[in-house]
């Protein structure tokens, strides 16, 4: 269940979701581009989506990977210009429930609890981005790679005693880490040599999640 809808009674939640339209996306299909007009909120129902930003130079950075029960697009609907602030891409076949901006606006106006949760979640996202910035400035590349791999393993349902397949390329992981591909590749090769993971074409298999956790304690 989406945290955004937690303040609603069951009947209110059902009525709101009845207004949504199911959307399906193929691997690498774009849900929206940064700068597009925003007309809907997407509730992630299945699959994984990457949220990316672009600099004027053309360089890109991946802010986060979204899973089922996450959502995306609410920030643009709160902005005065109602423009998308990031590009969202399906990392694999994915499904969302798209809710029109008018329905989202009505939900917020009728339910103060939703407004409070939106504010809290936005603050959480700012805290997360601030933490990522500090990591980039003060932590080693190795530790940043370990931490992102742990997060991705958990997003894909991984456990310490199972092999978890993360269908991301090394370049996509580098974007998420905030680094270029060659040094990230070196870190991954060292982990592969130690049988912590196995590298494949556009996929990373986490073999020893417990070891990755040990390398990046909270």
Write the layout of secondary structure elements.
Blueprint lengths: L9 H8 L3 E5 L4 E3 L7 E7 L2 E6 L5 E7 L4 E2 L1 H5 L8 E4 L3 E7 H10 L1 H27 L2 H15 L8 E3 L3 H8 L3 H13 L3 E4 L2 E4 L2 H7 L3
Antiparallel strand pairs: 1-8, 2-7, 3-6, 3-8, 4-5, 4-7, 9-11, 10-11
Helix pairs in contact: 3-4, 5-6, 5-8, 6-7
Summarize the structure.
The chain has 218 residues and is of the alpha+beta class. It is built from eight helices and eleven strands.
Description:
The chain is about 45% helix and about 25% strand. By secondary structure, it is an alpha+beta fold. A hairpin with a 5-residue loop joins β4 and β5. α6 crosses α7.
Share of helix, binned: 40-55%
Q: What would you call the structural class?
A: alpha+beta
Q: Write down the overall mean pLDDT.
A: 88
Radius of gyration: 18 Å
Secondary structure tally: strands: 11
- Which residues form runs of ≥5 with pLDDT under 50? none
Q: What form results from the Cα inertia axes?
A: globular
Distance N terminus to C terminus?
27 Å
Number of H- or I-type helical stretches = 8
Strand content: 15-25%
**Neighbour order of strands in the largest sheet:** 1-8-3-6
Mind summarizing the main beta sheet? 4 strands, antiparallel
* SSE pattern: HEEEEEEHEEHHHEHHEEH
Search tags:
about 220 residues; alpha+beta; four-stranded antiparallel β-sheet; about 25% strand; globular
């Amino acid at each position: 269940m989406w945290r955004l809808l937690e303040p609603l009674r069951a009947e209110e939640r059902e009525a709101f979701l009845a207004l949504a339209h199911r959307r399906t996306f193929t691997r690498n299909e774009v849900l929206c581009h940064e700068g597009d007009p925003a007309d809907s909120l997407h509730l992630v129902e299945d699959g994984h989506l990457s949220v990316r930003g672009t600099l004027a130079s053309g360089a890109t950075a991946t802010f986060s990977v979204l899973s089922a029960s996450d959502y995306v697009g609410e920030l643009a609907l709160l902005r005065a210009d109602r423009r998308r602030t990031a590009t969202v891409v399906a990392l694999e076949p994915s499904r969302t429930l798209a809710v029109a901006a008018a329905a989202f606006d009505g939900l917020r106006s009728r339910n103060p609890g939703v407004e409070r949760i939106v504010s809290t979640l936005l603050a959480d996202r700012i805290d997360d981005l601030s933490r990522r910035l500090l990591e980039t400035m003060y932590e080693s590349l190795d530790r940043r790679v370990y931490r992102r791999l742990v997060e991705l393993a958990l997003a894909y349902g991984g456990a310490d005693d199972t092999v978890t397949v993360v269908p991301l390329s090394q370049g996509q992981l580098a974007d998420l880490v905030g680094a270029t591909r060659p040094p990230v590749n070196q870190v991954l090769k060292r982990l592969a040599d130690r049988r912590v993971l196995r590298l494949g074409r556009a996929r990373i298999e986490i073999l020893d999640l417990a070891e990755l956790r040990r390398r990046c304690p909270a």
